[in-house]
Structure formats: structure tokens, C-alpha cells
């Protein structure tokens, strides 16, 4: 028997799955828009607070204030970081002739010593030929690596206009999303029946608190990383301690799996190449320590901030990483809480927690 309601639901489900698959395949294209929407949702509590404090019926003024403050702080931190980084690179580049001279002296001494040693060995000629063959292969490999680096650098430079365009789209979309967020949410809720819409509103309210809790946890962790990094760098490299600590803090507050290691490891390798082996090793050790400490503390801090016990937080991050990679580390807890919130709202009935204590979301 033909059931139009069932057919409509099946078609709606198929359309929703098709949209999700399409967005997943073209995720890089939708990423600026999704980030703008996410940022607008994060800023929404501040917009509401300002709207209430200013007693303004329209959103244009509080949205403009929050948006301008975000651009000002973000632009100033980016300018400060880039200028300090360029200055440090320039000062380091002035030391290259000194390091090159020391390397040349070392190579000359090594060649003299090597020739004296080879002259005393019966099979010296064969050793020299083998070394020449290996050096040619090493030279070819070095040329290949250099070509790859130059190609990557060229790709990055040619991609700067595209990055600026994407950044402009992100900024414009963020402002428009912030301005029309309540209306957009109402349009979304109006697609459903009144009972379902009320349940979805409950889920969205819970998720907005989770978003704030997540970024609160990230900010707390990043501040701790900044303090530890700054104190450590005062002993390792005091002349660039503040600049590099700020740069590491900016990288760390972005939810990347590697975090501070993204800056400390290349810095340590560069220091060892330039002859500061002790400094390079200390930077490597600092990167490992920060990575381990953050990974150990993060589930507890994140769980307390978003309202989950440490165990489900760790498990959701683990399974998210297994199925979706690094992005799953971020999305795992949100997916778990979304399912729990939908269950509490009555969208479906599943016993996900059983009778385990301390697993409920703290309201």
C-alpha cells in the first residue's frame, strides 16, 4: 500500500545523506563558511550580552563591536608575530657567513685528516671511489630535496592571493552570519514540526554551552602551555622567549594534535643545523614534554568544561581519531554530547550509558 508520508521521509533522508556526502567530499570548499558559522555561534553569547547591556533592539551595534574587536585583536597578534618573526629571521641570516666560514674550516681540516688517514690504508683507493659514489648519490638526493622545497615554497607564494581571498570570504561571511544567526536558526527550526523543533532547540542550546566550554578549556590549556613555554625558553633562548611563546600560544590554541611541536621541533632542528646542539635538544625535549602533559591533562580539563567525565571524553576522542583522523579528536566529544543531548530531548530512545555512574552530562 502506497504511503506518501513514508515516501516523503525516505526522500528527505536520502536528500540529507546526499548533502552530507557532498559536503564531506568538498569539505575544503565549505571549510571557510563552516568556520565562519562556527565562529558566529561562539560569538553569539557575547553578542547577546552586549545587546542586553546596551539595551539595543537591533543586533547591528553589538555584532559590529564584537566583530571589530575580533579583527583588531587577531590582526594585531598576527602583525606582532609576523614582524617579530621576520626580524628574528633577518638577524639570524646575518650570522650565516660566520657559520659558513666555520663549516668551511671544519671541512678543510676534515679533508686534510682524511687524506692522511687514507694514505696509510692499503685499500685506500677503493674506499675513496666508494665514498665518491656515495657522495654523488647524496648530492643528487640533496638536489632533489632542494627542488621539492623550492616547489613547495613557490606553491605557497602563488597560493597567497587565494588564501587572502578565502580569508576575505571568511570575514565577510562571519559578519553576515553573526548578524542573521537568530533568523537562520529560526528558518532551520521551522522546517520541522513544533514538537521536534522544541527538541532541536534544546539540543542546540546544549551544544552552544558545549562550544563555549570547549573553547574555555582550550584557552585554559593554552595559557598553561604559554606560561610553561615562556619560563622554559627564558633558560633555553631568552632573546626570543616572548616572541616564540606567543607564536606557540597562537598555534596551541588552535585545536591541532601536534600543538607546540609544530613550532618547537623545526626550531630545534634549525638550531642543531646551525651548531647549537644543546639548544636544539632542549627544544625537542620541551616539545615532547608539552605534548605529553597536554594530552594527559586535556581530557580532564575538557571533560569538566563541556560537562563530561574523563573516560567518555577520552574514548570519544580516541574513536574520533580512529575513524576521522585528527579532525575526529575535535569532533568526537561533540558528536557524543550531541547524541546524548538528542536522547535527553527525546528525539530517540537508546540506552547509551547503561547504569554506569558519573557518566551523565552535568547541566
TrEMBL record:
Pfam families: AI-2E_transport. Keywords: Membrane, Transmembrane, Transmembrane helix. Its main location: membrane. It is found in: Membrane. The chain crosses the membrane at residues 12-39, 60-82, 163-192, 213-236, 242-267, 279-297, 317-339. It is a multi-pass membrane protein. Belongs to the autoinducer-2 exporter (AI-2E) (TC 2.A.86) family. This is Sporulation integral membrane protein YtvI. It comes from Alkalicoccobacillus murimartini. The lineage of its organism: Bacteria, Bacillati, Bacillota, Bacilli, Bacillales.
